[in-house]
Design a protein that fits this description.
Number of strands: 31
Strand content: 15-25%
Distance between the termini: 71 Å
Structural class: alpha+beta
Strand order of the largest sheet: 1-31-30-27-26
Shape: elongated
Helix content: 10-25%
Number of helices: 12
Length: 701
């Protein structure tokens, strides 16, 4: 019996020592690789210390606990030196060490170490208590929180258009994109008491023939007592807003297949045809209509009262947006966002299939008669004459920059503001024409009646990072130097928020041009400067190895090695064959639903996300694909895109964003930053649900 217990003791000590040996060797070898790449010396030193602990454990010496206590305390001090008292950053540096330390102080473990050492157990207990105290302190102190002030005396911004308090008739409540409801019934005191009133299930689920990306991104609209929403497959539902009961539904019979890049509907638009702005037959046929964009390149006008097609619109209620397109393959041109509706015009743009070919459909923006569907004007961003109307002999321009995000509209100025994308391929610009560069990654203001350019402002020059303008701009009238100025807020993926006079595109908040990293891939070029707005949520500092995250010190070490293998010189580091870290990545600090404006006080909320990506140009593979001319013509550089690192929470080497709810004075004067719930939970969830949607903040706070 005694011999059996002795064997069990030796086995327990041996297994403990083997675990320590694994940790030591991993940290030593991986750490040495990291040091060669220019990274932290902590890991190989910690590996050597861990191997010393291993030797002592094999020899049965309790002094191993002394050495381990020193390693644990040194690790905590090093962690605080690198990242401060940031709980989510300290945790991966210490979690394995803390758990292993707890194992070592268990009586049935340390008592099996026959060679005594005075105070060893007590020393490790003290080290664990200190470590636990530091982590606890970090858990209650968020170093990323910024607490500025918003002036309570700020002059309320004047409303641009009038919408009934209880209505939400457009994607952003109004076409100015303000996304703010004045209703006050729900407030900070009673929000906890909210109960489910009703649930409606559309039954629209992913089908076997769908593409890999199918998303539910809809923002419903509400007019009177009816709620209108579209599903991923663009099925349109009208619901009783009070009860959730279905009034009617309409199915456009979208025939999606795996060749579609995605299946998405962000929303629909609403229009009332009245006697003073529409022919009598239109008013009689469809006095209230829903305009529904469909991913196969069709636009439907549906009677808002009964769900029937508006026979007087286009071809019995259906408008073919593929007309005069240079490529008409279904799914390559996809209108995914609701169009702008004026008294006269439907202004619609659309997405194209990203990085599939350089023979993409045009990103043309078009204006159609709101009553009849007749083409009134076109603005083709990649054409020498953007306003040239196509004919049977003349099609729109291949691969023009597109505008996939929702637009905004100022009825007083009759200007529509379009956030523009970039020509495919996203990260290679060596073959772009001057016309393709002209309006890429810009805000373009067009006259909604004529389609003529009023002004444009480019937020990224020669965009090689897929930094297209991703979200609906927001319009506001603010006071600047005692004068009311009509402005447009344009959130960019870079984290910049460009604030412009929406009459002429002149900057209201400065955005000076600053030098950026040079050295483009062979055959391409980069511009010497890029604009940096003074109102910005872009990262304040460049990434370092300390910003890499993992669930443990082991995968954190891997992330640090990967970081030092990549080219990274800060924001706008050019893509490379070596592999480039792009931060913020092309998910953007802002995505398609990222700004909410309040009227009192004069301020707004933004929801930025921080996620980094790595991009690698691969000319050899691209040349091998030249045989498929229709698919890869002139696409010399392919993209390998993978998640790399993130910050400021430093929690994962996955593309998990940081979700925050910042508030900003509309003139850019005050700011606070508060991490949101996604920030607190994303590191530990098995599945992170990335949120790119719109923030919701009640008027009552």
């Amino acid at each position: 019996m005694a011999e059996t217990k002795s064997q069990q003791s030796r086995l327990l000590v041996t297994l403990t020592a083997l675990f320590a040996a694994f940790c030591g060797l991993y940290l030593l070898i991986g750490g040495a690789w990291l040091v060669v790449l220019g990274g932290s010396w902590y890991y190989p030193i910690a590996g050597l210390v861990m191997l010393g602990v291993t030797v002592m454990l094999f020899r049965g010496k309790r002094a191993a606990l002394w050495l381990y206590a020193a390693l644990l305390l040194a690790t905590m001090i090093w962690g605080v030196w690198e990242v401060g008292f940031d709980f989510w950053a300290l945790t991966p540096r210490s979690d394995i060490l803390v758990f292993f330390g707890i194992w070592l102080i268990l009586p049935f473990v340390w008592r099996r170490l026959p060679v005594p050492s005075a105070g060893a157990v007590g020393a490790l207990v003290v080290a664990l208590l200190i470590s636990g105290g530091m982590l606890t302190w970090a858990g209650f102190n968020d170093p990323q929180e910024v607490n500025g002030t918003l002036s309570a005396d700020a002059t309320p911004a004047a409303p641009i258009s009038t919408v009934a308090d209880g209505d939400w008739p457009a994607y952003g409540r109004n076409q100015e994109g303000q996304r703010f409801s004045p209703l006050k019934q729900i407030n900070a005191d009673n929000v906890k008491n909210l109960k489910e009133a009703w649930v409606f299930r559309t039954g629209d689920l992913k089908q076997p023939n769908d593409p890999g990306e199918i998303t539910n991104e809809v923002t419903p609209i509400k007019v009177g007592d009816t709620l209108f929403l579209c599903t991923a497959h663009q099925r349109l539902f009208a619901l009783d807003a009070a009860t959730g009961k279905e009034k009617w539904h309409f199915d456009p019979q979208l025939n999606a297949d795996p060749s579609f890049q995605h299946v998405t509907c962000r929303g629909v638009s609403y229009h009332e045809a009245k006697a003073d702005n529409a022919p009598a037959d239109v008013v009689a046929d469809c006095p209230r209509r829903i305009i529904l964009p469909v991913n196969d390149g069709r636009l439907f006008a549906v009677n808002a009262d009964n769900g029937k097609l508006c026979e007087t619109f286009a071809n019995k209620g259906i408008l073919n947006l593929q007309t005069n397109m240079p490529v008409t393959t279904p799914g390559m041109y996809e209108p995914t966002s609701p169009p702008i509706i004026t008294d006269k015009t439907i202004v619609i743009a659309g997405a194209v299939t990203d990085n599939f070919s350089t023979r993409e459909p045009s990103g043309v923006i078009r204006g159609f008669d709101v009553n009849t569907g007749k083409l009134l004007w076109a603005f083709d961003p990649g054409a020498k004459d953007p306003n040239a109307i196509p004919s049977d002999e003349h099609h729109f321009t291949l691969n023009s920059p597109n505008s996939w995000a929702p637009a905004a509209y100022d009825a007083k100025l009759d200007l529509v503001y379009l956030p523009m994308g970039v020509t495919t391929p996203d990260i290679w610009g060596g073959n772009r024409t001057p016309e393709q560069e002209r309006y890429a990654s810009s805000i373009v203001a067009l006259n909604a009646t004529t389609g003529k350019l009023a002004w444009s402002y480019q937020t990224v020059h020669h965009d090689l990072w897929d930094m297209d303008m991703p979200s609906q701009p927001t319009l506001a009238d603010i006071e600047v130097n005692g004068k009311t100025v009509p402005v447009i807020y344009a959130p960019a993926k870079t984290g910049n928020i460009f604030v412009l006079d929406r009459r002429n595109g002149e900057l209201v908040v400065p955005a000076p041009e600053k030098p950026v990293p040079q050295g483009a891939a062979k055959g391409d070029y980069v511009t010497k400067t890029q604009p940096f707005s003074d109102l910005s949520f872009r990262p304040k500092k460049d990434l370092t190895g300390a910003d890499m995250w993992g669930a443990t010190m082991f995968d954190q070490l891997v992330c640090r090695v990967i970081f030092h293998q990549l080219r990274y010189e800060g924001i706008f580091t050019p893509p490379s064959e070596q592999g480039t870290l792009v931060f913020p990545g092309n998910l953007g600090m802002f995505e398609w639903g990222r700004y909410l404006r309040r009227s009192e006080p004069s301020g707004g909320y933004r929801q930025p996300d921080g996620a980094a990506f790595r991009l690698k140009t691969d000319p050899a593979r691209a040349r091998q694909s030249d045989g498929a001319a229709e698919r890869c013509e002139r696409l010399w550089y392919r993209v390998r895109r993978a998640a790399a690192v993130r910050r400021p929470v430093r929690r994962n080497a996955e593309p998990v964003p940081v979700a925050v709810r910042p508030a900003v004075q509309t003139a850019g004067l005050g700011i606070y930053l508060r991490p949101g719930s996604e920030n607190q939970r994303s590191g530990m969830e098995k599945t992170y649900r990335y949120s790119a949607g719109q923030p919701a903040v009640p008027d009552a706070g």
